[in-house]
Write a structure and sequence with these properties.
The chain is of the alpha/beta class. The protein has an 8-stranded mixed beta sheet, sandwiched between helices. 38% of the residues lie in helices and 13% in strands. It is globular and about 45 Å long. The chain has one domain (60-268): Rossmann fold (3-Layer(aba) Sandwich). It is built from 12 helices and 8 strands. The structure holds NADP nicotinamide-adenine-dinucleotide phosphate. The site of NADP nicotinamide-adenine-dinucleotide phosphate has 26 residues, from helix 3.
């Protein structure tokens, strides 16, 4: 039954008091909305590979590890901090190169090595170009839920035959590189600069929706909750193999869509070859 964890989450949320997400929304409404969404997602996901009971994410899910401090990494960091999370962020050049960004992000942000960002994160975002995924610290990410924002740009990432032939999705490749993590596609079809500004309170008319995909139901529930805290509805596309539905050159790519619009688009989108 989902009722028990939802009540627990409501009580935990009311009692914690400290994670006020930018006072942009009411936590009770947030948890109730999340519970309703989880019920919808559960029925939608019953036929996916690893369907498990959805667990609401507690407000104590406090630190987001971010690997990559460029467009996506820095903007998710801004949005996460505005929503009340702490952030540990890394790049390829080392923590000392992140002083300016950390000053901009404020006291809830800290720079780390990539291993430190992976280990510190209760939830971790991979925001490096696809061609760099092989450099990720798989051991430090073992057991973690990892959000993958990747898209395939052959000019940048080099040609990858499985993607050219539509035999795999970018997130399946990330999952393969991180075999002991639970990878969830997220943030790949929103322009990075819109992430801190486009989020709105749960229930807002025309709230923006983002597609997610993953093979693990509980991992997806965690990401749904994180997106909700940042101000976004999430629409579950199914397993990682279906994450092509919001990849580059699809109708929802870079487009502001609501949940209803995204739910209408996803079943009918045609797979494109990413050249
Ligand atoms: N830009 C967008 O609006 C957008 C939107 C949706 C999805 N995406 C996708 O998200 C991914 C990231 O894009 P982006 O635009 O954020 O890229 P970006 O601005 O080029 O930033 C990439 C970041 O990854 C870091 N990095 C590279 N190799 C690393 C490693 N081995 N360990 C740690 N950090 C490493 C870089 O470090 P340095 O700073 O030290 O070089 C840089 O901070 C791409 O697949 C992109 O297609 C982008």
């Amino acid at each position: 039954m989902i009722v028990v964890p939802v009540i627990a989450a409501v009580l935990a949320t009311i009692s914690s008091g400290e994670k006020e997400p930018g006072v942009r929304f009411n936590w009770l409404a947030h948890v109730c909305s999340l519970a309703a969404q989880l019920l919808r997602d559960k029925s939608r996901d019953d036929d996916t590979r690893n369907a498990q009971p959805a667990q609401p994410v507690p407000a104590s899910m406090a630190t987001i590890g971010i690997i990559g401090s460029g467009n996506i990494g820095s903007n998710v960091a801004k949005a996460a901090i505005a929503a009340g999370y702490d952030v540990v962020i890394s790049n390829s050049r080392g923590p000392e190169s992140l002083t300016h960004l950390i000053n901009e992000l404020g006291e809830n942000a800290r720079a780390g090595t990539t291993e430190e960002a992976a280990e510190a994160g209760d939830l971790v975002l991979v925001a490096v170009p696809l061609g760099k995924v092989g450099e990720l610290p798989a051991d430090a990410l073992a057991g973690k839920v990892v959000m993958d924002a990747n898209n395939y740009y052959p000019q940048r990432d080099g040609r990858i035959a499985e993607l050219d032939n539509n035999e795999a999705t970018t997130s399946e490749l990330v999952q393969r590189a991180l075999p002991d993590s639970q990878v969830v596609k997220a943030f790949n079809h929103i322009n990075a600069k819109d992430i801190p500004s486009d989020g709105t309170a749960a229930g807002t008319l025309d709230r923006r929706a983002l597609g997610i995909a993953g093979d693990d139901h509980a991992a997806k529930a965690l990401v749904v909750s994180f997106l909700d805290a940042l101000g976004y509805d999430a629409v579950d596309m199914g397993p990682l193999a279906e994450s092509w539905r919001t990849e580059r050159d699809t109708p929802a790519y870079g487009k502001r869509v609501t949940r209803a619009e995204l739910e209408e688009i996803l079943p009918i989108v045609e797979r494109v070859q990413q050249v």
